[in-house]
């Protein structure tokens, strides 16, 4: 990883990296805003990669029969990064591959518009990190090409754009089964003990993002159900974030 940083001419952290990286290494679910070009992608990729490698080393030392690769399984990524556009997903994947080459973490792009068969074959191998668009990842999950029960970190990048483009329902369908054991837990934002870390980034703190972070949309749906109105508002399920999510505010 150090070699990858050296190749990218990255010697010192940006302000958002100084703020976000320690918080993300603590395993807390975290949301933060960072403008384009501020180093946001590395702010979540670096701690994500460090945690995955740390997990491998821990498993490798816990029993003599376990190797560092024992935490890796076919069709079961350990991290998922979701982006709203093909271009951004491809950019994130490129940065990730540059950084992860020397530390032996594998990644694959599951991006809408690309060949499904090729993606399916890539998922048939041991993959550490999936980077893709929500709809395509959901399609592969529903087709049985990828299982998300081993995911330790979910990243929702450019959340402001995700909400503007209507990806909220797809993200909720991917995220909620991994976070919550029951509808009651989901409504309260109470995660299961083994729930993955959630990382939410946004370029701007729009009103929609603030409502999401404040739980306003999920509260609206809860009230609708209590009235006996089973029709989902807003065109689909609303993302319910962990109640313990920490929102970072840059100074």
From TrEMBL:
Checking InterPro entries in the record gives: DEAD/DEAH_box_helicase_dom, DEAD/DEAH_RhlB, Helicase_ATP-bd, P-loop_NTPase
- List, as start-end ranges, the regions of compositional bias called Basic and acidic residues: 217-234
The record's GO molecular-function terms, alphabetically, read: ATP binding; helicase activity; hydrolase activity; nucleic acid binding
Which keywords belong to this entry?
A: ATP-binding, Helicase, Hydrolase, Nucleotide-binding
User: Where are the residues of the annotated region Disordered?
Assistant: 217-238
PROSITE patterns tied to this protein: HELICASE_ATP_BIND_1 (PS51192)
Which SMART domains does the record associate with it? DEXDc
**What range(s) does the Helicase ATP-binding domain occupy?**
21-223
What domain of life does the native source organism fall in? Eukaryota
Which PANTHER family would you find in this protein's record? DEAD-BOX ATP-DEPENDENT RNA HELICASE 50 (PTHR47960)
Protein name from the UniProt record: Helicase ATP-binding domain-containing protein
User: What does UniProt list as this organism's lineage?
Assistant: Eukaryota, Sar, Stramenopiles, Ochrophyta, Bolidophyceae
């Amino acid at each position: 990883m150090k070699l990858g940083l050296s190749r990218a001419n990255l010697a010192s952290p940006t302000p958002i990296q100084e703020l976000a990286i320690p918080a993300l290494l603590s395993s807390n679910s975290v949301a933060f805003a960072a403008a384009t070009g501020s180093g946001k992608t590395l702010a979540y990729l670096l701690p994500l990669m460090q945690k995955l490698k740390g997990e491998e080393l821990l498993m490798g030392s816990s029993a003599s029969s376990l190797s560092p690769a024992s935490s890796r399984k076919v069709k079961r990524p350990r991290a998922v990064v979701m982006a709203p556009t093909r271009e951004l997903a491809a950019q994130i994947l490129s940065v990730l591959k540059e950084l992860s080459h020397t530390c032996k973490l594998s990644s694959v792009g599951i991006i809408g518009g690309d060949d499904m068969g090729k993606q399916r074959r890539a998922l048939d191998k041991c993959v550490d990190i999936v980077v893709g668009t929500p709809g395509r990842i959901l399609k592969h999950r529903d087709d049985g090409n990828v299982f998300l029960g081993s995911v330790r970190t979910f990243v929702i990048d450019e959340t402001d754009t995700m909400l503007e483009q209507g990806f909220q329902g797809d993200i909720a369908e991917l995220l909620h089964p991994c976070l919550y054991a029951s509808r009651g837990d989901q409504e309260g934002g109470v995660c299961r003990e083994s729930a993955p870390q959630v990382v939410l980034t946004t370029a701007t703190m729009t009103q929609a993002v603030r409502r999401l972070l404040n739980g306003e949309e999920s509260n609206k749906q809860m009230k609708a159900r209590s009235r006996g109105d089973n029709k989902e508002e807003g065109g689909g399920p609303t993302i319910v974030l962990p109640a313990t999510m920490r929102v970072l505010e840059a100074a």
